C-alpha cells in the first residue's frame, strides 16, 4: 500500500533538489555579472541558496548602491574592520576592490596613510570588534563634532553598519576555512563540497594535503587531554566549574592548536597589521566576579 506513495514522493524530491540547484546557479550568475567574479564566500554560501540570496543583496546594497559614502571609502572601512580581526582573506579581497573603484593606492600602505577622517574610526572600530559594551554616546558625539574631519550622521550610520558587518563576516570566513582567491597571495580556487556527496570532508583536497591531517591529529590529542581532565574531575572532590574551565583553557593554550603569540604575529601578513592600531587590544571578559564591571545587557 505504501508503494504508490513512494513513487509519487521520489519525483517531487528530485524536483526540489533540481530547483535548489537551479536557484543556486542563477544566483552565481547574477553575482558574476554584478561583480565580475564569484568569490569564495559566494561559492561556499551557494550551498544554501536562500541564505546566499539575502547575503548577496545585503552586500550589494552596502557596497554598490547609492549611499552617503563613496565606494572606495566603503571598501577601506571593510579593510579596517577585517584587519581588526586579522582576517587576511577579507583584507586582501577588499584591497583589490578598493583599487578597482579608483581608491588611492597610497592608502593601502597602512592606516597612517589614510585621511584623518577615516583614521578617526579606529577607536570605535576596535571597541565594536572586541568590547562593544564600552561604547558610549561620547564616542558617537566625537565623530559627529563639527570640524574639518567630522562625519555626517548618514555617513556614520553607513560606516558603523559596514564595520559590524565585516566583523561578523570575518567569523564566517574563519569558521568555514575559506581560502584566498586565486589572484590573492597564496590563493587557490575554492570548490565547495557537494551537500549530497559521501566523500570525507577531511580529504586531502579539501583540507590542504597533509596539513589537514596534522590539524585533525592535533584536535584528537586535545580532545584526549580534555577527556582525561574530566575523568580526573570525577575522582577529585570540590573541583568547581570555574577551576575546571581554567584547566581547560590552560590545556588548550599548551596544546599544539594554539600558536605562541610571538610566532603568530610574525606569521600575519604585513598587509593586515598595517591597518591595525593598538593590536594588543582584544576581548576581555566583563563579568568576572569580584571586579567592578559594566552591567550585562540581556536581550532575552
TrEMBL record:
It is found in: Cytoplasm. GO terms for cellular component: cytoplasm; nucleus. Residues 183-213 are annotated as: Disordered. One of its GO terms (biological process) is negative regulation of TORC1 signaling. It holds the Pfam family PA26. Coiled coil: none annotated. Its main location: cytoplasm. It catalyses: a hydroperoxide + L-cysteinyl-[protein] = S-hydroxy-L-cysteinyl-[protein] + an alcohol. Residues 196-206 have a biased composition (Low complexity). Keywords: Cytoplasm, Oxidoreductase. Gene3D superfamilies: AhpD-like. InterPro entries: AhpD-like, Sestrin. One of its GO terms (molecular function) is L-leucine binding. Belongs to the sestrin family. This is SESN2 protein. It comes from Fregetta grallaria (White-bellied storm-petrel). The gene is Sesn2_0.
Amino acid at each position: 500500500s505504501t508503494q504508490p506513495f513512494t513513487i509519487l514522493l521520489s519525483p517531487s524530491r528530485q524536483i526540489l533538489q533540481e530547483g535548489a540547484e537551479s536557484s543556486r546557479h542563477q544566483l552565481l550568475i547574477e553575482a558574476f555579472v554584478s561583480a565580475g567574479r564569484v568569490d569564495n564566500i559566494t561559492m561556499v554560501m551557494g550551498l544554501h541558496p536562500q541564505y546566499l540570496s539575502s547575503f548577496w543583496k545585503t552586500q550589494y546594497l552596502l557596497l554598490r548602491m547609492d549611499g552617503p559614502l563613496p565606494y572606495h571609502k566603503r571598501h577601506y572601512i571593510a579593510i579596517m574592520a577585517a584587519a581588526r580581526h586579522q582576517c587576511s582573506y577579507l583584507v586582501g579581497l577588499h584591497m583589490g576592490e578598493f583599487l578597482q573603484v579608483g581608491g588611492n593606492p597610497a592608502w593601502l600602505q597602512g592606516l597612517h596613510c589614510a585621511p584623518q577622517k577615516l583614521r578617526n574610526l579606529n577607536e570605535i572600530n576596535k571597541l565594536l570588534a572586541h568590547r562593544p559594551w564600552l561604547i558610549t554616546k561620547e564616542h558617537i558625539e566625537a565623530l559627529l563634532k563639527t570640524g574639518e574631519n567630522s562625519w555626517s550622521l548618514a555617513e556614520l550610520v553607513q560606516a558603523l553598519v559596514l564595520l559590524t558587518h565585516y566583523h561578523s563576516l570575518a567569523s564566517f570566513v574563519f569558521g568555514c576555512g575559506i581560502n584566498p582567491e586565486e589572484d590573492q597571495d597564496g590563493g587557490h580556487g575554492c570548490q565547495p563540497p557537494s551537500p549530497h556527496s559521501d566523500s570525507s570532508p577531511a580529504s586531502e583536497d579539501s583540507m590542504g594535503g597533509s596539513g589537514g591531517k596534522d590539524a585533525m591529529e592535533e584536535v584528537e590529542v586535545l580532545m584526549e587531554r580534555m577527556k582525561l581532565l574530566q575523568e580526573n574531575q570525577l575522582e577529585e572532590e570540590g573541583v568547581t566549574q570555574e577551576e575546571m574551565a581554567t584547566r581547560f583553557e590552560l590545556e588548550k593554550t599548551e596544546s599544539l592548536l594554539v600558536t605562541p603569540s610571538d610566532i603568530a604575529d610574525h606569521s600575519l601578513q604585513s598587509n593586515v597589521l598595517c591597518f591595525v592600531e593598538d593590536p594588543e587590544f582584544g576581548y576581555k571578559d566583563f563579568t568576572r566576579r569580584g571586579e567592578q564591571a559594566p552591567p550585562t545587557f540581556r536581550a532575552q
